[in-house]
Write a structure and sequence with these properties.
Layout lengths: L3 E4 L5 H15 L4 H5 L7 E8 L2 E15 L2 E13 L8 H12 L5 E6 L13 E2 L2 E7 L8 E3 L5 H13 L6 E3 L2 H8 L7 E4 L4 E8 L2 E9 L8 H4 L6 E4 L10 E5 L5 E5 L1 H10 L9
Parallel strand pairs: 4-5, 12-13
Antiparallel strand pairs: 1-2, 2-3, 3-4, 3-9, 5-15, 6-15, 7-13, 7-14, 8-10, 10-11, 11-12
């Protein structure tokens, strides 16, 4: 039976369920809650191979519109690359990649995060490996915590936070229009990671693990010193890692970041030219 390529079909319940079934088998992920919360929109576009009524392979396009130090950019991120075990080595991923690269040949650049099993695949399409850089600092404070959690338990909470997000400035030189991707995380396994700083109009998305704090974004209409963030979370925080590039990073330690079993690939002259300013894309943009 011949296959077909289907695109942007998430409103079709049967096809969406088939996509979710494949994603669960491959990655343990299910996008249904994200869809029902209203955040799976036309910026996350599955390109899939349909065979006998089932999704058997996929490469998803994530539209990443962003501002890089005042320059408007339109990037594409590829993610959720998967093929059912029974249908591998038949060229389906190549077929999808070729269609996507044709459809988005005019964008400012394409990037992805590949696992170690497929490092030889993407260079066939012109992708090249790139370094990522992040920042960190050792915290030093005797004060107690001055943050409180923001409820992220239901649709009303999600809507309230989106309004907060859109009325505040992300304190990063790279600003992405990717609320949909951010809410993939915050509506599911990062629901306890949103905080408000008491007596400040400042919100922080962060995860605390013993004495280490990872910051994913800072939302404030006034500049915030990144070196002070650890102090807001109390004196048991010893180390602060930034999973996005903060403003005013001169007091922070810059380092070459390498995630286990993950390689950053890029394609496109504009994106490659921008990399020294981008350094790394925020974790909440990863798909």
């Amino acid at each position: 039976m011949p296959y077909s390529i289907i695109v942007n079909y998430q409103k079709d319940e049967k096809l969406r369920n088939s996509f979710n079934s494949l994603a669960e088998r491959m990655f343990g992920l299910n996008f249904e809650g994200w869809y029902k919360s209203g955040f799976w929109n036309d910026k996350y576009i599955p390109y899939s191979i349909l065979l006998d009524g089932k999704v058997i392979a996929n490469v998803s396009v994530n539209i990443i519109d962003c501002n890089v130090n005042g320059k408007e950019r339109h990037y594409i991120q590829l993610g959720t690359v998967m093929t059912d075990v029974q249908h591998r080595n038949k060229g389906y991923s190549r077929i999808l990649m070729e269609k996507i690269l044709y459809d988005y040949k005019d964008c400012d650049g394409i990037f992805l995060f590949a696992n170690d099993e497929v490092l030889d695949f993407y260079p066939k399409f012109g992708f090249q490996k790139a370094d990522e850089y992040r920042f960190r600092i050792t915290a030093d404070t005797d004060s107690g915590a001055c943050v409180e959690q923001v409820s992220m338990k239901n649709k009303d909470d999600f809507s309230d936070f989106i309004n907060i997000k859109r009325s505040h400035v992300s304190r990063s030189p790279v600003k992405t229009d990717t609320d949909d991707l951010m809410m993939f995380y915050l509506t599911q396994f990062m629901q306890e990671c949103v905080y408000r700083v008491k007596d400040k109009d400042c919100y922080i998305i962060a995860e605390k693990d013993n004495d280490t704090l990872t910051i994913f974004d800072i939302l404030s209409n006034e500049p915030i010193e990144p070196k002070e963030i650890g102090c807001y979370f109390g004196n048991d925080v010893k180390y602060v890692n930034f999973a996005f590039i903060p403003e005013n990073s001169s007091s922070l330690e810059k380092y070459l970041y390498k995630e286990d079993d993950t390689t950053f690939f890029v394609l496109g002259e504009t994106l490659i030219h921008d990399l020294p300013e981008i350094l790394s894309f925020p974790v909440l943009v990863h798909a």
